[in-house]
C-alpha cells in the first residue's frame, strides 16, 4: 500500500514540472507540527540541510506520530521535489488567559509561490479548549491570528499562495480564505483542509471552489461543525480515531485512494453531535466546557501526555475536583451529557431500523380439512 512517504520516494519532479498535487498539500500541512524553533536555532531553513538524525528526532519528538514524522523528514531531505523547499517567518504564540495556541510557517515552493501551513491541535489543554470554543464563539483567537499572519505574509512576499493545515489547522486555512477580501483572496490559489472542522455555515461558492477538504472514512473531527458535503473521503488503513492521522491514508499515484462515503458510525456521530449542539445555547456550551476543563486543570498538567504518563495521580486529582464541584455544576453535567447520550442512542436506533426490519415470511398454504360428517 502506498502512503505519504512512498509518494515522496516515487515523485522526483520539481514543482515547475509537476504542479502542487493533493498529496503535496497534505504533506506540507503535516510539516507544521515540526519544531521550527529548534531548526532556527541551528540556522537550518531548507529541507536539504536537515541532515542530522538526532536533530530530526528532536524536532518531531512532540508530534502525534513521531516515528512517521521522523521518516518523512529523512525522505524529504533526499527528495529532488522537496529538498530545496525553504521556510521562513515561523511563529508560535500561546495565551492561557484567552485560551489561544497558534502556530504557522511559510514554505517557498518556487519564485513567488508560497504555502502557509497552520499547525493543528497538539496535546495541550489550551489547544483542545480553543478547539471546543469553536462550538459557541463566532471566531476564536487562533482564527484571527491566522488571518493576520496571511495578510502580513502577502504584503511582505507577494505572489501566489496555498494555505493548508491538519485538524484545527485546516479550519484556520479555510477561515483565512473565507475572510480575505479582494486582492488578498485572489492571491490564494488553493486551500487544503486535512480532516479539519468546518466553519458552521456553508461557504460562498467562490471560496468553496478553492477549498480541497479530505476526511477519512471514519472521520469525527473533520465532520464537526461541517454543514456541507463538499469533501473527499480517503481510504485509511487504520481503525477508528487513528484514521485522523494522514500517515494512515492510502495514496494512489499523485492522489489519494477515495471512497464514495464515510462509515455508518461516522455519519451517526456527525448527526448526533450536530443535533446535540443545536439543542444547547451558547451560554450552556461555555459553562459546560469551562467547568470540564477546570476539572482537567486540577491535575496541574498542561499536556495530555503528561497527564497520561502520571495517570494514577491525574485520576485521583480529577476525582477530587469532581467531588468539589457545586451541585449546580453537577446537575448541568448530568443534563448536558444526558442529552448527548440520548441523542446518540436515538440516532443509533434510527440508523439500525433498516437492519432490524424482519423479512417477510411466506408460509405454505395448509391443506383444507374435509368437513366432518355425522355418524348414524
Automatic annotation (TrEMBL):
**Any Pfam family:** Mbeg1-like
Look up the domain of life of the source: Bacteria
InterPro entries of this UniProt entry? AB_hydrolase_fold, Mbeg1-like
Q: What is this protein called?
A: DUF2974 domain-containing protein
Amino acid at each position: 500500500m502506498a502512503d505519504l512517504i512512498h509518494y515522496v520516494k516515487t515523485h522526483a519532479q520539481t514543482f515547475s514540472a509537476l504542479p502542487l498535487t493533493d498529496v503535496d498539500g497534505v504533506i506540507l500541512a503535516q510539516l507544521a507540527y515540526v519544531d521550527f524553533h529548534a531548526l532556527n536555532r541551528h540556522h537550518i531553513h531548507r529541507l536539504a540541510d536537515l541532515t542530522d538524525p538526532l536533530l530530526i528526532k528532536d524536532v518531531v519528538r512532540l508530534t502525534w506520530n513521531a516515528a512517521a514524522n521522523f521518516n518523512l523528514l529523512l525522505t524529504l531531505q533526499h527528495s529532488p521535489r522537496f529538498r530545496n523547499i525553504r521556510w521562513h517567518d515561523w511563529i508560535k504564540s500561546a495565551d492561557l488567559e484567552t485560551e489561544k495556541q497558534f502556530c504557522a510557517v511559510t514554505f517557498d515552493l518556487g519564485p513567488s509561490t508560497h504555502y502557509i501551513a497552520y499547525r493543528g491541535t497538539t496535546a495541550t489543554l489550551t489547544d483542545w479548549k480553543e478547539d471546543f470554543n469553536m462550538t459557541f464563539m463566532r471566531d476564536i483567537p487562533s482564527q484571527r491570528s491566522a488571518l493576520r499572519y496571511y495578510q502580513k505574509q502577502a504584503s511582505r512576499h507577494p505572489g501566489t499562495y496555498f494555505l493548508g493545515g491538519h485538524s484545527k489547522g485546516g479550519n484556520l486555512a479555510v477561515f483565512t480564505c473565507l475572510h480575505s477580501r479582494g486582492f488578498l483572496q485572489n492571491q490564494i490559489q488553493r486551500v487544503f483542509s486535512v480532516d479539519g472542522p468546518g466553519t458552521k455555515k456553508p461557504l460562498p461558492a467562490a471560496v468553496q471552489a478553492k477549498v480541497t477538504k479530505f476526511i477519512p472514512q471514519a472521520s469525527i473531527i473533520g465532520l464537526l461543525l461541517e454543514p456541507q458535503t463538499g469533501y473527499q473521503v480517503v481510504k485509511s488503513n487504520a481503525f477508528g480515531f487513528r484514521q485522523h492521522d494522514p500517515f494512515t491514508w492510502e495514496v494512489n499515484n499523485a492522489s489519494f485512494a477515495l471512497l464514495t462515503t464515510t462509515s455508518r458510525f461516522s455519519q451517526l456521530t456527525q448527526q448526533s453531535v450536530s443535533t446535540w449542539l443545536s439543542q444547547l445555547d451558547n451560554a450552556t456550551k461555555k459553562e459546560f466546557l469551562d467547568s470540564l476543563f477546570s476539572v482537567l486543570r486540577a491535575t496541574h498538567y498542561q499536556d495530555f501526555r503528561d497527564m497520561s504518563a502520571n495517570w494514577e495521580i491525574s485520576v485521583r486529582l480529577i476525582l477530587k475536583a469532581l467531588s468539589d464541584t457545586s451541585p449546580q455544576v453537577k446537575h448541568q453535567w448530568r443534563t448536558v451529557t444526558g442529552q448527548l447520550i440520548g441523542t446518540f442512542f436515538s440516532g443509533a436506533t434510527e440508523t439500525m431500523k433498516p437492519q432490524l426490519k424482519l423479512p417477510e415470511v411466506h408460509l405454505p398454504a395448509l391443506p383444507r380439512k374435509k368437513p366432518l360428517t355425522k355418524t348414524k
